[in-house]
Amino acid sequence: MIFKILVALVFMFSINVHSAECTAYETSHPFYKLDGAHLSTGKCKTCASCHLSGTYMGTPRTCVLCHNGDPRWQTVARSASHIPTILVACDACHSTTSFTSNVKMNHTSMAASRCDSCHNGLYTKYGAEGKNKDHKVTTKDCRDCHKSTSSWDA
Q1: Per-residue pLDDT tens for 59-111?
Q2: Is the same domain home to 58 and 107?
Q3: Same domain, yes or no: 50 and 96
Q4: SS3 16
Q5: How far apart are the C-alpha atoms of 34 and 47, rounded to whole Å?
Q6: Range of the domain at 31
Q7: Which of 14, 47, 96, 140 could form a disulfide with 144 if both were Cys (CB 3.0 to 4.6 A apart)?
Q8: What is the pLDDT of residues 37-55, one digit of tens each?
Q9: Predicted TM-score (pTM) of this structure
Q10: How far apart are CA 127 and CA 103, in angstroms?
Q11: What is the DSSP string of 78-128?
């Protein structure tokens, strides 16, 4: 009986120490930059917000591994209508301080993709306009003819 009480006291003490430790790491995490919404939403105010069940090794460090709609992390997943950027890191266009406003597409990160994978008329609400109706019919990629996206000179 005394052993059980001692174990319970040690466990309670370790939780309190661990909580104090987490508070210290709240704004200066050694392995993941906690900024923007990660600090202000209240969802990331404790270690347990990301380190589920006290698991520290293997906690996701990329946006899509947490922001996938999994209720354990209480995050929103990328919408099905999002521009297809599977191989591009979210922070190439988004920031943690203003995720949906002031989004700037970093086309450099898309260099391996064809322009028409986004600029096909399906993603106009994201600013990815397709070819105009008078454009010459072609199967070539835009950059085969156009050398500048600022003037679209061919």
Answers
A1: 888 888 888 887 776 777 888 888 887 777 888 888 887 777 777 777 777 77
A2: no
A3: no
A4: helix
A5: 11
A6: 2-66
A7: 140
A8: 777 655 666 777 777 777 7
A9: 0.57
A10: 10
A11: PPTTS---TTS-GGGT--SSSSSSS----GGGGTTS-GGGTTTTTBGGGTB
β-strand partners of 128 = 123
Is residue 112 domain-resident?
yes
Question: Which residue has tokens 């600029």?
Answer: 119
CA-to-CA separations, 50 to 18, 32, 75, in angstroms, rounded: 15, 11, 11
Q: Are residues 118 and 85 in the same domain?
A: yes
Is 19 inside a domain boundary? yes
State which of 66, 88, 119 marks the end of a domain: 66
How many domains does the chain contain in total?
2
One domain, residues 107 and 152: yes
CA distance 140 to 146: 11
